[in-house]
UniProtKB/TrEMBL annotation:
UniProt-recorded name of the protein: SH3 domain-containing protein
InterPro entries: DUF1058 (IPR010466)
Protein source organism: Microvirga arabica
Matching Pfam families: SH3_4
Keywords (A to Z) from UniProt: Signal
Keyword Signal in annotation: yes
Highest classification ranks of the organism: Bacteria, Pseudomonadati, Pseudomonadota, Alphaproteobacteria, Hyphomicrobiales
Keyword Signal: yes
Origin: domain of life: Bacteria
Span of the signal peptide: 1-20
Length: 177
């Protein structure tokens, strides 16, 4: 009789532990890693105080391609954080898996422009100088350097390499393919 009671207690504890890991209401997200970086799909994205359209809009992003970090998921809603630390909820359909990054958004105005090189080497030729906050499209990262492309309106796109530590939108030592 004791063995049966112990077995029931173990099953009961395991089920309780599984329930404790689920978000409120038992609704799971995508199963993708959290946190992770994505980008805004459109030029107008409402950042809400909670995960529904009933919650107040706290901010409106107006920059398609802006990188954001998903820090939580609830049904079709994603809690995101921008490079300035602002957090809120957006519908998943307003986000893109396309990886973008900001060139040193933390830099102050008195810092020199950020160099974009033609190879993953500081001694290689500089192909462009970037101002802080420029959105770059991530082509790949090896953990130290990222190959990026900057779309230029009315001109040829710029392609080159930047040190990964100078970007917000990729994790330190992260490899992006």
């Amino acid at each position: 009789m004791r063995k049966i009671v112990l077995a029931l207690a173990v099953v009961s504890l395991s089920a309780g532990a599984a329930l404790a890991q689920q978000p409120p209401g038992g609704r799971l997200g995508t199963g993708l890693p959290v946190p992770r970086y994505v980008s805004l799909k459109t030029d107008r994205v409402n950042l809400r105080e909670g995960p529904s359209k009933d919650h107040r809009t706290a901010w409106v992003f107006q920059r398609a391609g802006l990188p954001v970090e998903i820090i939580a998921e609830y049904e079709t809603w994603r809690r995101i954080r921008d490079s300035e630390g602002t957090e809120g909820w957006v519908l998943h359909s307003l986000l893109s898996g396309r990886r973008t990054a900001l060139a040193m958004p933390w830099a102050k105005g008195d810092q020199p422009p950020i160099s974009l090189f033609d190879r993953a080497d500081e001694k290689s030729a500089v192909v462009a100088h970037l101002q802080p906050g420029v959105i770059t499209n991530i082509k790949g990262c090896d953990g130290r350097w990222c190959r990026v492309m900057i779309a230029m309106e009315g001109a040829r796109d710029v392609d080159g390499y930047i040190q990964q530590e100078k970007l917000w939108g990729v994790y330190p030592n992260e490899t992006v393919e």
